[in-house]
Amino acid sequence: MLRKAMEVLQLFTPKRKEIGVTEAAELLRRPKSTTSRWLSAMEEAGFLDRDADSGRYRVSMRVAAVGEMARQATSLQRRARPALERLTAATGETSNLVVLVGREAVNIEAVESPHPVMHMGSVGRRFPPHASAAGKSLLAWAPEEEVLASVGTPLARLTPATITSMERLLEELAGVRERGYAVNWRELEEHLVAVGAPVRNHRGEVVAAVSISAPVSRMNRETLPEVGRHVVEAARALSADLGWRG
């Protein structure tokens, strides 16, 4: 039952806060009757709440509270928070901590920009690594075969600027290694710019990425090296805290 519960809970995302039985059954590729039983059982156990009017389910406050406790207690997020706060203070933009999970980059911590117009750093947000600065930072130092396995093919086009050629992506990752930071210029969202850098553990392995994200209206290409310097400094500070001495 625990495995089934995890399958259901993983359906919920920042963009899919509620779900109906039919939609859940399609996503799980399970019969509607089976899915309905699972959701009902999870509601009875306190994992889910059900809206009396729509019949749709959402994660319960009890689970949300446990998730918040786990987020605060997790070593990487806890250690990253000061570096992210300093990065946001230095750049004025939203800072993020991102890890690679399968073929998705996942935002696991964020400090929001003080500007009234900002990019929201939603914790739990998932996105393709080939179209993001953090994702490119996570991929750049991996062997080519791991890159291929991590992005899959074809590469999804999310905006006109998204890299969709594997050859072009590998060239981009070589540039990331040379600069020390990655740039996403309107590749994930039309209005979004981001800069990311790798975080290493005590063995020198890239385990996460630090990035800032901002509206394109507040960024220009001439300032990218200066922003990149701040992002690299934040990533190196966190890496040093994790024991990296490179």
Structural features, described:
With 246 residues, the chain is an alpha+beta fold. It folds into two domains: 2-66, Winged helix-like DNA-binding domain superfamily/Winged helix DNA-binding domain (Arc Repressor Mutant, subunit A); 74-241, 2-Layer Sandwich (Beta-Lactamase). The protein is 43% helix and 20% strand. The protein has nine helices and nine strands. The chain has helices spanning 2-9, 21-28, 32-44, 61-73, 75-91, 133-139, 144-151, 166-179, 224-241, and strands spanning 18-19, 48-50, 57-59, 94-101, 104-111, 126-127, 182-185, 192-200, 206-215. The protein has a six-stranded antiparallel sheet, with helices on both faces. A three-stranded antiparallel sheet has the order 1-3-2. Helix 2 (21-28) packs across helix 3 (32-44) and helix 5 packs antiparallel against helix 9. The longest helix has 18 residues, at 224-241. It is globular, with a radius of gyration of 19 Å. The relative contact order is 0.12. The mean pLDDT is 90.
Keywords summarizing the entry:
alpha+beta, 9 strands, Arc Repressor Mutant, subunit A, single chain, 6-stranded antiparallel beta sheet, 246 residues, 20% strand, 9 helices, 3-stranded antiparallel beta sheet, Beta-Lactamase, 2 domains
The SSE order reads: HEHHEEHHEEEHHHEEEH
Q: How much β-strand is present in the residues?
A: 15-25%
Integer-rounded radius of gyration: 19 Å
* Overall 3D shape: globular
Instruction: Provide the structure class.
Output: alpha+beta
Question: Can you lay out the helices and strands and say which pair or pack?
Answer:
Elements lengths: L1 H8 L8 E2 L1 H8 L3 H13 L3 E3 L6 E3 L1 H13 L1 H17 L2 E8 L2 E8 L14 E2 L5 H7 L4 H8 L14 H14 L2 E4 L6 E9 L5 E10 L8 H18 L5
Antiparallel strand pairs: 1-3, 2-3, 4-5, 4-9, 5-6, 7-8, 8-9
Helix pairs in contact: 2-3, 5-9
